[in-house]
Amino acid sequence: MTHPLSEPEVDIANRDLLPTTSSQRQWTLYNYLTLWIGMAHNVSTYMMAGGFIALGLSWWEAILTVLVGTLIVLVPILLNSHAGTQYGIPFPVYARASFGGVGAGVPALLRALVAAGWFGINAAIGGQAVQMFLSMLIPGWAHLSTAFTFVGLDFGGWVSFLLFWFLNIWIIYHGIDAVRRFEAWAGPLVLLLGIGLLLWAYNAAHGFGPMLHQPAKVHGAALWAVEIPALTSVVGNWATLSLNIPDFTRFAKSQKAQIWGQTLGLPTTMTVFSAIGVLVTSATIVVFHQAIADPVTLLGHFHNVLLLLISLGAVVVATLSVNVAANVVSPAYDFIQLFPKHLNFSRAGLLTGILGIVMVPWLLISNPHIYIFSWLNVYGGFLGPIAGILIADYWVFRKTTLAVVELYAKGGRYYYANGYNWRAIAALAGGVVIALIGKVVPALAWLFNYSWFVGFIVAFIVYLGLMQTAESPDVRLAGSR
Predict the structure, then answer these.
(1) C or N: which end of the chain has fewer Cβ atoms within 10 Å?
(2) Where are its TM segments located (predicted)?
(3) pLDDT tens across 401-427, in order?
(4) What is the average pLDDT score of the chain?
(5) What is d(CA 397, CA 127) in angstroms, rounded to the nearest whole number?
(6) Under a CB-based contact definition with an 8 Å cutoff, are residues 444 and 463 in contact?
(7) DSSP of 358-369, one letter per residue?
(8) Rounded to the nearest 10 degrees, what angle do helices 255-288 and 176-204 cross at?
(9) Distance separating alpha carbons of residues 455 and 387, to the nearest angstrom
């Protein structure tokens, strides 16, 4: 299909936010399959799953946690994917139906800030790999790299981090089609790295037996104190993509292509790669008598220079793969929603990268407790409510019917009062407060452990209640068919 809009008719968008045309819809089942292979097969997924072992779960508890959490988050991913393919619209435009033409900037900003943090985290991981490269290739680099330390990162760390950072920005400056081409081959390459590490673990630990016999270190109440936040962190891991997945499905050739590509791609690849992370981390307990959940740190224990160079190269590709697809494409569209007259895709991607530096990501990944219990669960409390509002609005209140032209026009049915739907803002605020209150009120800590779920349910109910009972003209207009 072709979109009915021309740029002079658009009030609150630019070329990058317009609905996709039939010629732009080139993504097939294979593209969505490799997209998820590229995004799920990455170092942060490995670190999360391996971190569960470091926190005391057994190998099967860790893998089951990943599988269940991934199947849960697949539901909102597919529900929000539908609008992207049906109408060819990106997430910031999709959010206008519920939050308003201007109010959609609120969820877009929250989503973009989280993505900037993720961009920084993956850039820090990629920078660690580059740092090892330089240490092997440049005599004296190890000594030179410690010349000074700034904000917790030494000179060598800054050079390596920025080199990897520029690689990401270079790909983004070549546009969305470059992302599609890069993901098509990068994803499968990452799996080869994981298989290689698994083969090492099998040999080093003298078979799977010693790995699989590593017992859980937490039981009873202590087990659930780890298990519940861990499950929430798996959901939170893809909470960002569950919102902005229309940014990718708007390029789908059909609903069937994106549904099957994602259903086959996410749960299987996420579980398989997480299982590799779990087993290899279990092997490090056998071999090194400590759980090493960071694969870059683990590679530092290898002594074969050629093997190490190949492995570090795969780490760089793996991290580039997830960072470009998951953490630059979507926030770029989000920032364009906020400043459509000043930003295009490339400039917004650069802004994301700059924010990723400001958020000092190397401190976020400093240990599993910070990474899993703070970073993943806190932002889950912000993004769960947004998902609840989007799904309640599109599937229940509007029954999947949108007037696309009015999503781009001031004064239309989705502009509400002065561009804001205060009901969506209120539902978002209520969901966030209740989801995160347990972080500061110990008696309500259980709410924080389920932060994404609590925020989703509260916002879903509050939003529908406010919309269904409203008598104001702006809501009647917005809900009209």
Answers:
(1) C
(2) 33-55, 62-79, 99-121, 157-173, 185-202, 222-243, 264-293, 305-333, 345-364, 370-392, 420-438, 444-466
(3) 999 999 998 888 899 988 999 999 999
(4) 85
(5) 46
(6) no
(7) HT-HHHHTSSHI
(8) 30
(9) 9
Question: Which residues lie below 8 Å from residue 6, measured CB to CB, with a gap of 6+?
Answer: none
Retrieve residue 249's tokens. Answer: 């499905």
- 296-334 pLDDT, tens digit per residue, is 788 888 877 777 777 777 777 777 777 776 687 778 777
Separation of alpha carbons 165 and 357, rounded Å: 9
Q: Specify the pLDDT at position 184.
A: 61
- Decide: residue 2, CB within 10 A, 0-12 exposed, 13-18 middle, 19+ buried: exposed
Task: Please state the φ and ψ torsions of residue 250, each to the nearest 5 degrees.
Answer: -65, -15
| Domain ranges for the chain | 7-383
Strands (E) in 277-337, as ranges, are none
Helix axes 105-137, 329-338, angle to 10 degrees: 140
Calculate ∠ Cα 436-439-443, nearest 5°: 105
> If you write DSSP's letter for every residue of 135-177 in order, what string do you get?
HHHSTTHHHHTTS-EETTEEHHHHHHHHHHHHHHHHHHTT-HH
Buried/exposed 67-96: b ≥16 CB within 10 Å, e otherwise = bebbebbbebbbbbbbbbbbbbbbbbbbbb
Q: Is the pLDDT of residue 7 over 50?
A: no
Spell out the SS3 assignment of 60-116. HHHHHHHHHHHHHHHHHHHHHHHHHHHHCCCHHHHCHHHHCCCCCHHHHHHHHHHHH
User: Do the beta carbons of residue 11 and residue 88 sit within 8 Å?
Assistant: no
- Identify the weakest region by mean pLDDT among 69-78, 215-224, 250-259: 215-224
Angstrom CA distances, 464 to 77, 110, 276, 426, 459, stand at: 20, 21, 42, 12, 8
155-172 and 176-204 are packed helices; what angle lies between their axes, rounded to 10 degrees?
A: 130
Length reported for the chain: 481
Name the token pair of 140.
Answer: 């004296």
Distance CA 244, CA 94 (A): 9
Type of residue numbered 362: W
**Helix ranges (DSSP H) in 392-469:** 422-436, 445-449, 451-469
Contact 434, 460 (CB under 8 A): no
pTM for the model: 0.83
| One-character DSSP codes across 197-210 | HHHHHHHHTTSHHH
100: left (phi over 0), alpha (psi -120 to 50) or beta: left
- Which residue in 378, 442, 375 sits closest to 51, CA to CA? 375
